[in-house]
Amino acid sequence: MEHKFKKQYGQNFLSDTNLLKAIVSDGNITQDDEVLEIGAGAGALTKILDQTAKKVVSYEIDTSLQPQLLSLGLARTTFVFADALKEDIKKIESHFSHNYKLVANLPYYITSPLIFKFLTETSKTESLTIMVQKEVAERIVAKAGSKDYGVLSIMCQFYTSPSIKRIVSKKMFYPQPKVDSAVVTMVRKKQPEVDGEKFSMFIKKCFSMRRKTLANNLNGYNGIKKSDLSQIAGDIDLNLRPEMLSIQQFLQLFKNFEN
Ligand code: SAM
């Protein structure tokens, strides 16, 4: 295959069949599943998905890959040549008859926005099994009090139970990236009891200055004066830095501020 790799699209392709099969198995994909892939590349992962799932819809932004992908003749796969981040979620989901699983070796330059899109704009993603940079994987699973704990950890753990399935050496990709990667599987929990979009804005506000206290970061939130903050916060100490609070405590704090 002749292909001019495009760095701006995060094109680092895989070819090792054992690794590709392991990713599909990490996603717990069976013949009953409908699967969304983001970033087909040369179709290496798509081929294994096509052999395993009931149906595959695979997005690819780079139209120069179209001849290669269509020549694979995959029976259960529909390729869509469009930007998956910009595509309306309803349009993406019109391909599926019910809930679906997302499996992808994600383009690293839009990892976080893609994760946020498929967590917050829909509840139909049963699970996300994604190859991301190792440091992003560590942030996704980080616990309160650790240096990696932040907005990404809280939102991923609010919607799902995430786990790192395997570390993947940079040597497994072509062209080789600068850092190692990891496969993370996130299994969606039951629908959260609060508005995810508002909760996400609240968490971003709490972490607006990571080294400052919650009291400083929440000053002015919902028009609340600094002097009233601690009374509204109740049991939760706003003199702490945001990374010290568990997700349960953030939820409690959010509910106190919404009431
Ligand atoms: N799945 C292939 C593999 O594992 O070898 C390719 C993975 S590569 C890391 C990411 C792929 O995502 C590239 O082919 C890139 O062109 C594509 N891509 C980048 N941005 C995209 C977007 N916004 N929407 C759809 N595909 C995108």
Overall morphology: elongated
Number of helices: 11
* Helix-strand category: alpha/beta
Question: Approximately how much beta-strand content do the residues carry?
Answer: 15-25%
Question: What's the CATH topology label of the largest domain?
Answer: Rossmann fold
Summarize the main sheet.
Answer: 7 strands, mixed
Number of domains: 2
Estimated radius of gyration? 20 Å
First and last CA, distance: 59 Å
**Unreliable segments of 5+ consecutive residues:** none
- Reading off the top of the CATH hierarchy, the class of the largest domain is best stated as Alpha Beta
Question: Any descriptors?
Answer:
259 residues; Rossmann fold; Helicase, Ruva Protein, domain 3; 2 domains; seven-stranded mixed sheet; two-stranded antiparallel ribbon; 9 strands; elongated; binds S-adenosylmethionine
SSE map:
Blueprint: E1 13-14, H1 17-26, E2 34-38, H2 44-52, E3 55-59, H3 66-71, E4 77-80, H4 89-93, E5 100-105, H5 111-120, E6 125-133, H6 134-141, H7 151-159, E7 160-168, E8 173-174, E9 181-188, H8 196-206, H9 214-218, H10 226-233, H11 247-258
Parallel strand pairs: 2-3, 2-5, 3-4, 5-6
Antiparallel strand pairs: 1-8, 6-9, 7-9
This protein binds S-adenosylmethionine.
Provide an overview of this structure.
Helix content is about 35%, strand content about 20%. The protein is of the alpha/beta class and about 260 residues long. It folds into 2 domains: about 5-190, Vaccinia Virus protein VP39 (Rossmann fold), CATH 3.40.50.150; about 195-259, Helicase, Ruva Protein, domain 3. A 7-stranded mixed sheet has the order 4-3-2-5-6-9-7, sandwiched between helices. Helix 5 packs parallel to helix 7 (about 150-160). Bound molecules: S-adenosylmethionine. S-adenosylmethionine binds near residues 9, 38 and 110.
